[in-house]
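seq:
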Amino acid sequence: MQPSNSKTPMIISLDYELFFGPSAGTPEACLIEPTQALIDALKPFNGKLTLFVDIGYLVKIKSLLNKQPHLKNTYDLVANQLNRLSLSGHDLQLHIHPHWEDTQYKNNMWDFSNTRFRLQDFSREEIADICQRYQSALEEISEQPVFAFRAGGWCLQPFDNILPAFKKLDIWLDSTLFKGGVSHDPSRGYDFRKYPNKTSWRFSTDPTEEDTSGNMLEIPISSLPHSPLLFWKMLWIKKFASNKKLLGSFGDGSVMPQKLSYYIERLTRTTFGPASIDGVKASTLQQAYAYHMKTNSEGYFNVMGHPKSLSKYSIQALAKFLEDKREIDSITFKDLTHLKADQ
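struct:
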């Protein structure tokens, strides 16, 4: 399953979604503008994006159009950008935040209910219905088959109740895991510490356990150890940086808060995190690539981000990285369909 050419295949995979905190933000600032800015920056390098689309957002809008017809403009704005990107060679795949099923629209604002944040919070029948509706909605927009998945909030475990729906819908590739990832939050937890030291592997019912006969393929997000200094830097920028036009995120919403222990851990000890182009994290791209080449020199370098969390600085940092690394070959998951297991 490892690439055979001499170049390092790089996947730039973005979670295309709004914020899920007290303010969702606008689609213009969280999705349209940053995605287009990134596309423009990638053109000199023939770079392609894989967008893991939080399609539940558009499914919810469509269900409200009879009562909220003004939302049609929002639907068209987002769906048209996604369609243009798909038809120009970028890749649209499935990202599910199922709490859209419980979310309401009040006073021209999204009122999020996060009591069922994970797919696993729904019954097996409900999971099958959600996956079918969301995949169908995304394929209608992309005009391409949707076969890859990234779990909302990285909440892929336990996988058993999701697998039957994926088999039925021919979803066979996942890109959720990252080395060392762990969250002990009972409402949105995950544990990827038991992790094959590879950049791709097959699995069946447990994504952290390789099964060479499994029909699911995992291509994890590349990762690296993050020093507490990175998070102190992020905190300083958020509170005190004067050059907000360069360093500030495009997105205009607010994040869903984590438990206090999450922030204390990152400010006091080295933790593993995804290789990311979000904000100041883009400053670690060179470090992430060096770590990747040291640990998995022949595998996929899979860098993630969120349009809402991009900044002018982070886009410039990615462009500089691509300019320096001519040995990189930009690919999407559509380029890997030959890796699908025989059914």
